[in-house]
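Q: Please design a sequence for this.
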C-alpha cells in the first residue's frame, strides 16, 4: 500500500513515472499549424475530428509545465501549441479564439468562455516557462476576456457569443466560471495582478451561496438572470458539457479551487481561510458520499439528481483526477488523516482500473462496471487532468497555482 500513500517514497516514484509517461503519450498532438489533434486510445492523432482550441490550450499549458520540469521535447511541443493559438485558431477579424478548426479548414462557430479561460491558462503557464510570444498572447487573451466575458456588475462570467461577438447567448453556466477561477488565480500568481484574484473570489462567493441552498450540490446551469435551472438537459443527462443534475466531480474541483483562493487571499491559519476550508470540506464530502463506490463497483458516478441519487453511472477520468487532487490538498490544509486515506483509495482505483498500463495514459470513460466506454469521451483527448493529478497533491504551497509553484 505504500505505493498509494501520499508522501511515501513509493508514491512519489509512482506519480513521477506516471507524469513522464503522460508527457510522452501526448507528444503527437500538434498539427502542422500547431492546433491540437484529438488523440486516440494509443496516442495516435484522430485527424478526422476538429482541432479544438480548448484542447490546444490544455496542451500548451501542460507542455509549458513540461519545460519547467525539464522534460525532453516539451519546449518544442509548447511552442507548437502556441503557434496554433496565435495562428489558425485566432480570429484576426473579430478578435478572440474560434472554438476550433474542422478537418476541412472551416471554423467551429461561436466564441466560448470555457475556451477563452483555457487560452488564458495556457498563456500564463507559457509566460512562466519563458516561451516566445507568450506574454503578448496573455495580454491579448485578457483584453478579449475582460471585454466580452467578464460581467463586472454580477461578478461572474457570461458563457457563449456568436462568432462575430455581436450576439450573446442567454445561457449562463458554472463550468466556464470554474475554469475562469483557475485561470484568474494563475494570472494573479504569474503577473501579480491581484484584481484577478479578487474576481475569482467574487465567483467563489456566488458558488458557495448556490451550493448552500442545494445541500452542497452545486447547480450547473442558469438563466440569463442567474436563476438556477435545475431541470436543464433532463432529457439528455449524459451531455458532455451540460449534463443534467449535480456533477460530483465539479463539487470536488470547486472545493480545491476554494482552498487555493482562500489560502492565497487570507493565508493558512486565519479564521477567514478556515471558514472557506470548512465549506470546501462540505463540498468534497458531499460529492464523495453521493458518488464514490455507491453502485456496487468502485468509481465516481458522473452525475446525480438533487437528492444525491446517481443518474449517469459512467466514470470519467477527470473526476478521479480531481478527487486525487482535492483529497491531497485537503490533507495539506487540515492534517486530517481521512483525506490521506481517501487519496490512497483513489490511487488504488487509478492503478487497477483507470490507468492504461500499456500506453501510460488514462482511460477517459468507463461504464459502471469499469469497462471501457466511448459514448461521451472516446479516445484520450488530452493529458491535462491526469498530468495535474501527479503534481497538485505534492504542491505544499496550496495557495499557489501549480505552474507558478514550479517556478518557486
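A: Design:
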Amino acid at each position: 500500500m505504500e505505493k498509494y500513500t501520499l508522501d511515501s517514497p513509493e508514491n512519489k516514484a509512482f506519480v513521477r513515472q506516471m507524469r513522464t509517461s503522460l508527457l510522452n503519450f501526448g507528444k503527437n498532438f500538434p498539427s502542422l499549424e500547431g492546433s491540437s489533434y484529438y488523440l486516440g486510445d494509443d496516442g495516435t492523432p484522430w485527424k478526422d475530428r476538429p482541432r479544438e482550441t480548448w484542447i490546444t490550450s490544455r496542451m500548451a499549458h501542460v507542455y509549458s509545465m513540461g519545460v519547467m520540469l525539464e522534460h525532453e521535447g516539451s519546449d518544442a511541443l509548447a511552442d507548437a501549441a502556441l503557434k496554433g493559438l496565435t495562428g489558425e485558431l485566432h480570429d484576426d477579424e473579430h478578435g478572440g479564439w474560434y472554438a476550433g478548426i474542422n478537418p476541412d479548414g472551416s471554423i467551429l462557430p461561436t466564441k466560448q468562455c470555457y475556451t477563452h479561460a483555457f487560452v488564458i491558462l495556457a498563456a500564463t503557464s507559457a509566460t512562466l516557462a519563458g516561451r516566445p510570444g507568450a506574454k503578448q498572447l496573455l495580454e491579448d487573451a485578457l483584453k478579449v476576456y475582460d471585454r466580452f466575458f467578464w460581467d463586472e456588475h454580477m461578478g461572474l462570467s457570461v458563457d457563449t457569443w456568436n462568432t462575430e461577438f455581436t450576439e450573446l447567448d442567454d445561457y449562463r453556466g458554472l463550468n466556464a466560471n470554474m475554469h475562469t477561477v483557475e485561470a484568474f488565480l494563475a494570472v494573479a500568481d504569474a503577473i501579480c495582478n491581484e484584481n484577478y484574484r479578487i474576481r475569482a473570489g467574487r465567483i467563489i462567493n456566488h458558488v458557495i451561496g448556490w451550493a448552500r441552498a442545494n445541500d452542497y450540490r452545486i447547480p450547473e446551469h442558469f438563466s440569463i438572470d442567474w436563476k438556477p435551472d435545475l431541470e436543464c438537459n433532463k432529457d439528455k443527462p449524459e451531455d458532455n458539457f451540460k449534463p443534467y443534475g449535480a456533477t460530483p466531480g465539479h463539487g470536488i474541483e470547486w472545493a480545491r479551487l476554494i482552498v487555493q483562493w482562500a489560502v492565497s487571499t487570507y493565508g493558512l491559519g486565519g479564521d477567514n481561510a478556515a471558514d472557506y476550508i470548512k465549506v470546501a470540506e462540505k463540498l468534497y464530502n458531499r460529492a464523495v458520499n453521493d458518488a464514490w463506490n455507491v453502485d456496487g463497483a468502485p468509481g465516481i458516478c458522473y452525475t446525480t439528481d438533487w437528492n444525491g441519487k446517481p443518474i449517469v453511472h459512467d466514470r470519467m477520468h477527470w473526476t478521479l483526477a480531481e478527487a486525487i487532487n482535492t483529497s491531497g490538498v485537503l490533507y495539506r490544509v487540515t492534517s486530517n488523516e481521512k483525506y490521506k486515506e481517501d487519496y490512497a483509495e483513489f490511487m488504488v482505483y487509478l492503478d487497477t482500473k483507470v490507468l492504461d498500463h500499456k500506453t501510460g495514459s488514462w482511460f477517459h470513460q468507463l461504464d459502471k462496471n469499469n469497462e471501457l466506454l466511448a459514448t461521451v469521451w472516446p479516445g484520450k483527448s488530452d493529458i491535462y487532468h491526469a498530468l495535474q493529478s501527479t503534481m497538485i497533491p505534492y504542491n505544499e504551497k496550496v495557495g499557489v497555482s501549480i505552474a507558478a509553484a514550479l517556478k518557486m
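Q: Thanks. Anything notable?
A: Residues 270 and 360 are 41 Å apart (CA to CA). Residues 271-291 form the longest helix (21 residues).
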